[in-house]
Amino acid sequence: MNLVFQAIMMYITFFYTDIFGLRVADVTLMFLLSRFVDAFADPLMGTIAERSNPPKGKYKSWVVFGAVPFGLMAVLTYTTPDLSYGMKIVWAYVTYNLLNILYSVIINPYISLASVMTADPTQRTKLQSIRMMCAQSGGVIVALALPLVSGWLSRFLSLQSSYMTTTVFLAVIMVATLFWASTQVVERIKVTSHEDPPGFKDVIYQLTHNKYVVMMFLLFFGVYGFNTVQSSSGVYYMTYYAQRPDMVAWFSMMNVLPSVIGVPIVPWLVKRIRKKGTVLLGLAIGAAGALLLGLLPPSSIVLMLAFRGVSSFGYGILMGVLWAIITDPVEYGDLHTGRRLTAIVMTLIGLGLKFSMLLGGVIPTLILDVVDYAPGVAQQTQQSLNGIHLMSSWLPAGILIVTLIIFGLSYDLSEEKVAEIQHKIAVRDGLVEPVNDEERALVAEGEALRAARNHDHAPQRGAEPAPLSTIDPPDERETTEDSQK
Length: 485
Hints:
The chain is 75% helix and 0% strand.
């Protein structure tokens, strides 16, 4: 997925302004309006995934369904047809938005897969760490391939055709990989949301009653906003501020390569400082790298690469832990609503990723517009250079600092609380014998919910169970093997 997604994150703004030939203000408006499309398309896709039950797999089937259309749309997005300016804008709007919609078709069910492959939090963390290590590796390939291969092809083709041809290569590899990967995934945990199909009211209910969905949305918004700002501004930073367009590919590579190292150490970090501590560490390291970059003069190329690498390492830690912690709100929502709507919860959280493109697309282009950036002009004004410097260093640092403060003060869903929630769900669903009055009340609640579903009624929305701290855990716990069964 990142063979295409990172191509959009890193280079699409530069492509639209300097190669496709769109005015900065028009690109800003397009990115802004596209996020409203995502606000409807993503929850809709999450609802569709929950209501469907394809024979080849509830979630993994969507990877197969969406692979070819997504690859084709990536190529069309990086295609520059010979049209009038107005029709170019139409082309950009249509292809860019369809690309984002098709991305949602695949990614929203895909990110739900780990939750149905295993219920073991440790295994989920390892799965997500390996997944994100490979994802960031895809980013390394894009960082080098798109500018270098396109530059080499431009000796034989136009620069516009070179970008399109390079995207064709990446898209073909992506489609082939997704087809193969879908054969390797086993969905072990049965999800029955299609038997009592959720509707839009369930989306709203999760959004208004599952506080951890909102917290995780803000976390994803901040982390991916930081990355999209850094990724989209890097090409401007090296081309105009540092006056080293020959270093664009390597600077972009340093935006992702150290993250490949950061991701695999996440399970080790989680064991020692827990998930929340790991998130805070990643946020602090990422912010520190961006702050240090802001102190450098234009001639410090080596330190630019080094400090961008520091931010990337912190981002890698975040990529490893974010996708492990994302399943915890699913458990909380299951306990407090009586429904396990994995794809809907993941979609609402994943909207933070989509809306982060507001930061990565709208704010940098807005800054460029304010400072009178002139596309393609080698010697920019000092005002323009100051704007490019701001959006490449101080802005991403500020985003992570604000995110760190919000998450550090508000998120309290610890590993112990998640384990307690999972135990209560098992009691409610009849998988574990109740041992006290509180747990017997959970059993009665579960029976009422099942009876309501059997009669095609909406799930009962009773009062929430007592706070976790008031429930005495059973004296004897099921073994890990039995719990998994």
